[in-house]
């Protein structure tokens, strides 16, 4: 049985459809991320689950219990806000203990649970400090510990890292994933950051206009996008408009109007159908002259002209022209090509997604 189930949730704000008939099951113990651009409905979904927003229609179940009409404080849900929302006049220990005191737990139980929660977030020994005496990352850990100490049935995280600087955000991604594994609490995480979602998630639900565009593991969503929106949202992607010429299972051949032929992978396609080929920069390999001569007419091997070459540290970011098409690629700094160079490249057909228009 899923830990959480949403059935046909609808929420409108005036004429704006924030959530459009969304259904979703969250597995027990998993970390599922709601990912999408601003305005896609992910935070509204989270607020419906928490009880701070009531859906116009649809039902929400926590286990077997229907919680659609239940007040937020009675749902057994922990929520970590974007702005931490710590009480500045209370110590770290008191921030965590306050919710337990309301439940009339004994002092010993409160002490044990607070200390355990602080150890989960690696803040042992900082219980007597005030929030102002902590770094941003430490404050974020306190907010997380305050939710965990209540031992909720499910944990909701609403863009918890958005207020941190880039380096600290990267560090906290891994730490949140580790804390989740240790605590074992079913978690829904909301973010617009694709890398963040890829690092921490068991599964990702990509949202747009209040609907789930794709639900799957990070590798499935990235490598096998369900449509052009998902392919474009999940990292840098080149798109080439084409028409399907042959289909053999999931092996698809396509051609463009200017005579470029490509092979890729796709499902549910048929001959003469309009499509887009999604090409990730990492699927493009730069060939040495000897390799190019050995495979002069190999699959997805083309001559390209270097239009732009930008140094970005460990890689060179290129803009290449193949016939009339501009694509982005990344190459090794040790084999830098200059603007105007004509080079040979190979596109890995197993990594090219052919998507119906």
Model description:
The protein is α+β, with helices and mostly antiparallel strands. The protein folds into two domains: 226 residues, Rossmann fold; 121 residues, OB fold (Dihydrolipoamide Acetyltransferase, E2P), CATH 2.40.50. Helix content is 25%, strand content 36%. It has nine helices and 20 strands. A six-stranded mixed beta sheet has the order 6-7-8-3-9-10, with helices on both faces. Helix 2 crosses helix 3 and helix 2 runs parallel beside helix 4. The chain is globular and about 75 Å long.
- Please report the distance between the alpha carbons of the first and last residues: 36 Å
CATH fold label of the largest domain? Rossmann fold
How helical, in percent, are the residues? 25-40%
Q: Any idea what the shape is?
A: globular
- The assigned structural class equals alpha+beta
Keywords:
single chain; 357 residues; alpha+beta; Rossmann fold; OB fold (Dihydrolipoamide Acetyltransferase, E2P); 2 domains; 6-stranded mixed β-sheet; 5-stranded antiparallel β-sheet; 20 strands; 25% helix; globular
